Every structure is written in structure tokens, then in C-alpha cells.
Amino acid sequence: MSFRFSSIFKAASIVLLCGLLAACQTSGLKPGSISSSFAPKGWASKQSGNKTVYVCLPPRCKSPEVVVVGPIKVKGDVETAIRQNLLSAELMNAVGNIANVASKGEVRFKTKRRVVTKTYTGFDMTARYRTDKGNLYVSGRVIFQNDRGSAIASFAKSSSRANANLSRFLKQTTIRRVP
Questions:
Q1: What confidence score (pLDDT) does residue 13 get?
Q2: Alpha-carbon distance 27 to 101, whole Å?
Q3: What residue ranges of the chain have pLDDT lower than 70?
Q4: pLDDT at residue 39, as a whole number
């Protein structure tokens, strides 16, 4: 079983593109905003610059499963725009539809819902990316605090595994506002 990180990160870039709402300015939530106890038995984690990558190792996982947490660049107060519903799931789906058409079916994006909590706002998204080895599914959440953003993306060969890993990560994670 070979693991194609280039396909994974290409798909991650496409998913994160949906979170890019304007020209680049600030990147990532403030240090300490995201803390997680995620790294179940059979998983390895690696810090690479400002990204954290969790990989499920064989024999625990029979096919590749990865969770990536990292910054996204945004400009302007995206959190307030989401709170005021100026940026909505419907608008994000319209952007996703453009990508769906432009990729000629190679990529399918869907924004499932807008997320609004007392400490952040964001969107839950899914994607399907066709590779030469079959489909790669992505389930993710983009998180915004004021003009800063981060993304959590779960990759797997099945949509149910991608969703389950994202859900597990979020249950073991605290997102707080750091002054």
C-alpha cells in the first residue's frame, strides 16, 4: 500500500482554497488557540512548520487516513462576516460549484453548514477528489477568529472514514480565543 502525499496535499490545497476569502494578509489562529489530545493508538503525528499532520499507520488502517491542521491566509474580519451571515454556506457552495465545473468533475466541493460558536466561526465542508488510484474524500472545518484562520482537514478513501476522523479530532480538541 503506497501513500501518495502529493495527492493528499494537492487535495488539501483545493479544500483550503474554499476557505480563502480574499487576498492574503494574516495567517493562522494565534498560537495556543487550538489544543488537541488527538493521536489515537496506531496514529503518528508530525509537526511540519506551522502544520500538524496525523497519519494512521498500518495495520491500524487498511487504507490511508490523514488529518491535517494548519493555517489559512485571509484578509479582513471574516469572523464578523460569517456571524452576520454575509458569508454563508450558500455563498460558499456557489464558489464550490465554480470549482466543480472548472475541474470537470475531478473535484466536488460541498459546504455542509456554517459554524458559529462563542469562540470562533467557520464552515464544515466536504470534498471528493479523483486520483489515479480512486477517490479521495475530505471532510474539513475552516475556523476564523477576527482576521485569522485555520483549517482542519481529514482525508480518507471513504467519506465515512473522513467524517469519522474529523468528528473524533473535533471532540478531542479545544478552540479558544487567545488575547
A1: 47
A2: 28
A3: 1-26
A4: 85
CB 20, CB 74: distance < 8 Å: yes
Q: Domains for the chain: give ranges and CATH numbers.
A: 5-175 (3.40.1000.10)
pTM of the model: 0.83
The 3-state DSSP class for residue 54 equals strand
